[in-house]
Design brief:
Shape: globular
Number of helices: 9
Order of helices and strands: EHEHEHHEHHEHEHH
Largest sheet: 6 strands, parallel
Structural class: alpha/beta
Bound molecules: adenosine-5'-triphosphate
Radius of gyration: 17 Å
Distance between the termini: 37 Å
Strand content: 5-15%
Number of strands: 6
CATH class: Alpha Beta
Oligomer: single chain
Strand order of the largest sheet: 3-2-1-4-5-6
Length: about 210
């Protein structure tokens, strides 16, 4: 995970990615453009067994779907959190990125739901020191709330960036629900991801193949 140059803009985008969908890609593309990011790493998170839901796909499937989605966009995928044993904290991943990419400027990308909980994240002070917290709304009324929260965590030492990206109201929950009910998911996930889901019978879908 090395950038090969000083002060390059390196962004981390973490998530369960169960599965990765077009809302994720839209967010990343928007930030990449607005912030002039040099590299974006998609980092699927390890879900501890006691938190795993029945419709959580295996880590290897979530990772592979991220790779399929990332490739056409020139995004990178890291298995750093999947490989790490024990609880997986974003702050540890950022520390690793910081170590491996000295001089890089780190950005943490996320949707509103995650941003509004940042204060409660493990070692949030250290998290705020390591990277700029970047958020975009997930619904119509989100922006005001995000700006107010950004101000609040700035007073705690965070660097923030709130971006007015156009909304793409997709969630993994929506995608899984449609698959389970036999409804099409075209346009919600990249074609290669859709094909992977079908081929591997993920999320209770019925394969046509
Ligand atoms: P689920 O429906 O299973 O909770 P999700 O769609 O929220 O999943 P995650 O993998 O949990 O996806 O989210 C990873 C990150 O992507 C989070 O920071 C989340 O806020 C953000 N995100 C997900 N969907 C969107 C979207 N449509 N627009 C903006 N941000 C999004």
């Amino acid at each position: 995970m090395e950038t090969g140059g000083p002060m390059r803009k390196l962004a981390m985008f973490g998530g369960t990615f169960n599965p990765i969908h077009n809302g994720h890609l839209h967010l990343v593309q928007g930030f990449r453009e607005r912030l002039g990011l040099d590299r974006v790493l998609l980092i699927p998170s390890r879900v501890p067994p006691h938190k795993a839901a029945a419709d959580l796909a295996d880590a290897k499937d979530r990772l592979e779907m991220c790779r399929l989605a990332a490739q056409p966009y020139g995004l990178e995928v890291s298995d750093a959190e999947l490989l790490r044993q024990g609880p997986s904290y974003t702050v540890d991943t950022l520390r690793q990125l910081h170590r491996e990419n000295p001089g890089a400027e780190l950005y943490l990308l996320m949707g509103a739901d995650m941003f509004l909980t940042l204060e409660h994240w493990y070692q949030s002070g250290e998290l705020f020191r390591l990277a700029r917290m970047c958020a975009a709304p997930r619904d119509e009324n989100g922006r005001g709330e995000l700006l107010a929260y950004a101000e609040r965590i700035e007073s705690l030492g965070a660097k923030t960036h709130v971006e007015e990206l156009s909304l793409l109201p997709v969630s993994s929950t929506l995608v899984r629900g449609r698959i389970a009910r036999g409804l099409p998911i075209a346009g919600l996930v990249p074609k290669a991801v859709e094909a992977y889901i079908t081929a591997h019978h993920l999320y209770g879908g019925i394969s046509n193949g």
